[in-house]
Specification:
Structural class: alpha+beta
Bound molecules: protoporphyrin IX containing FE
Largest sheet: 5 strands, mixed
CATH class: Mainly Alpha
Amino acid sequence: MLPGTAVRWATKHGFMRAGINAAARKGDEQARFFTDPAVRADPYPFYRGIRETAPLVRSRLMWATARHDLAGAVLRHEAFGVGFSDRPLPAPIGLMFRFSRRSSPIGPVDPPSMLVTDPPDHTRYRRLVSKVFTARAIEGLRPRIEQTCADLLRDKPADLIADFASLLPVTVIAEILGVPLDMRQKFLAWGNAAAPTLDLGLSFATYRQTEINIRHVNDWMRGHFARLRREPGDDLLSQLVRLDDLSEDELLATAGLLLAAGFETTVNLLGTGAWLLMRHPEQLAILREQPQRWGNAVEETLRFDSPVQVTARVCRKATEFGGEAIEPGHVVMAMLGGANRDPEVFPDPDTFDVTRTNAREHLSFSGGVHYCLGAALARLEGEIGLRMLFERYPDLRIDGEPHRRTTRVLRGFESLPVTI
Ligand code: HEM
């Protein structure tokens, strides 16, 4: 496995890592996003700097925007697509990469995952699963999510992430997909170890760990598909297996993405939301007085500290964008977390305000054809989870040092000790 892993690491992260480090040494501002611990701890002053420099900032690495209008526009622009391309690589390396892909495990950002696939294949993958995630279908899950929350909140949480925020989303998505609940802790462990795969310029050791853990998920899923072929249920994965419309790799990519996206992001919404409300008791007091505002509190949490901080698009055909000429192969990074603090759209953007009327205009669920498939589910889990948490434990407070995750694209807490 190792030579393939090394080639994949070199092409996906190694060259980029060298480029990022070289750019950082030359004082490239954008490179700080990937290297500077202060930016990871608090990226918002950094986004402000990018936004104030230019609408679209070019660096040695890529283009970037922290403006709401341009970030939204690039996500919807027909000249841009998604996914890693081996085209810029020198020919022999591109060849090695394509060869090494044959033995690659399939993670959430590897093709044929819909997240990194352009139409028409993207449309085909998404159509097969979208029915289950419409706002209406998700609203039907409300009683079940409330029951799950009540069960999880029966014992007082000591660490809000381990004891509540991570368990609610993984339980809900496991039930939708039809994977056994006793696998939850394994999935969480594999998912946590694989989460850095969304970041850029990983070290070899970290990349290797992500591959090992993605391979565990792949192996388990293959066995699960075989079981479902013998004994199908009425869950989503049984339906997909029965349809027989997807190849084994497509099935693996779709199932793995739904599972990982289902719990790797919403945990951050719940953890960050609880942390913000414990630190802003005056906002919690508003929600106690006006519980109809819980939905908006979730939108404001998503705006204020987005669980997914950035995404990117690759230019497919030469185009004029944001007043600049963008060439095929150029990458534009949409800084979602920065767009959500754009003062042109959100007055007083650095204030957490659960009564903000346009909080829902955030870009935390992206936009265009890749708009988050699970947005309705995440919103419902966020609303029920945060409301029930503070109803059950009104005096919840932080008790010790919270620790943030070390990832940069995904933002949230790894641990959040609390007491009541
Ligand atoms: C607060 C929680 C969540 C956040 C912030 C979030 C954020 C995002 C973002 C930003 C994207 C698009 C990335 C891009 O455009 O490059 C995305 C895509 C996606 N999300 Fe979510 N997500 C959340 C929860 C969920 C849940 C619960 C599911 C469960 C099914 C889910 C499933 C997906 C899928 C399948 C895609 C790919 C859609 C496509 O490529 O067409 N997400 N999400």
